[in-house]
Amino acid sequence: MDNVQLGQEEWREEQREILAFIQNELGWSYEGYSMASLERQIARVARDLCDGDSLALLRWLQFEPKKRSRLLRDALTVNVTDLFRDPEFYLDLKQQCFGYLSEFPRLKIWIAGCSTGEEAFSLAIMLHEAGLLKRAEILATDLDFACLRQARSGVLSGPFARQEAERYRKSGGQASLLEYFSLSYGLSKLRQELLDHIHFAQHGLRGSAPGEQFHMVLCRNVMIYFGPSLKAKVLQGFYKSLIPRGYLCLGNKESIEFPEGVELRQLSRHRIYQIQR
Ligand SMILES: C[S@@+](CC[C@H](N)C(=O)[O-])C[C@H]1O[C@@H](n2cnc3c(N)ncnc32)[C@H](O)[C@@H]1O
């Protein structure tokens, strides 16, 4: 074995140790995640915290193991999100799905992997403008407690700037985005009457689905970190959770193969699908 290969092998071994450490501490495993994606994330964290030295990262973990394992787990499951992320998605959602959704007196929507809540806030605003929010309950779930704490507060995790207003406009927004937020001490908080329609809860996608029937499920930019068998299991769970002709919305960058028995029709290039039963 030459030095380069040896280096690669050692690096892999250290990464496996890091993952096993987190697994032991938190009783939570990365089984089913894409190893390539996890390796990239560990390399990123090791670079940020310890000059790229993964052994040093392992030593860092051993000091306050539970707290730091939780921090590292959260860093590995990237939390990037935005208000009206991919605005054309919201535009398509409104044009393709809101008509059918308006036929129901009550609406249940599940956002899986909601991070700090901006996606749920955006959807609540869109539903409000379509006159559908009053009948809607949005269940927004994530694995990450810290994200959920932030999400429940209704306070935006990032700045409220021109880009947000621009994306809202491109999403088909009809008012001024500012109307939906109260601003105080530099923080922007979603208006309470909108926030009241969102229930944030902790849920890991490797477990079973929440056991309710939904009119629409959104899981955007989450499964990019999953390996094929976990993806297939999660997609089957979504499929079972949806009502006849319900909608499944996935992220643009997702590479997805639908497992057998999951029959969906693609409605938009922004990965909006409708159940074929
Ligand atoms: C990149 S964010 C996407 C947020 C939002 N859906 C969006 O598109 O803006 C991915 C989120 O998925 C969550 N996540 C990763 N693995 C998960 C799992 N197994 N179960 C539930 N959530 C998970 C992460 O904690 C993170 O908040």
What does this structure look like?
This protein is 45% helix and 18% strand. It has 277 residues and is α/β, with parallel strands linked by helices. It folds into two domains: 74 residues; 189 residues, 3-Layer(aba) Sandwich (Rossmann fold). The strands form two sheets. Strands 5-2-1-6-7-9-8 form a seven-stranded mixed sheet. It has a two-stranded antiparallel sheet with strand order 3-4. Helix 1 packs parallel to helix 3 and helix 1 crosses helix 4. It is globular and about 55 Å long. The relative contact order is 0.13. The N terminus is likely disordered. Bound molecules: S-adenosylmethionine. The site of S-adenosylmethionine has 21 residues, from loops.
Characterize this entry briefly.
With 277 residues, this protein is an alpha/beta fold.
List the main descriptive attributes of the protein structure presented here.
single chain; 277 residues; alpha/beta; Rossmann fold; 2 domains; seven-stranded mixed β-sheet; two-stranded antiparallel ribbon; 10 helices; 45% helix; 18% strand; disordered N terminus; binds S-adenosylmethionine
Write the H/E string, N to C. HHHHHEHEHHEEHEEHEEE
> By helix and strand content, what is the structural category?
alpha/beta
Q: How many β-strands, per DSSP?
A: 9
Q: Which CATH C-level class of the largest domain is it?
A: Alpha Beta
Strand order across the biggest sheet?
5-2-1-6-7-9-8
Helix content: 40-55%
Q: Can you say what the CATH homologous superfamily of the largest domain is?
A: Vaccinia Virus protein VP39
Uncertain residue ranges: 1-6
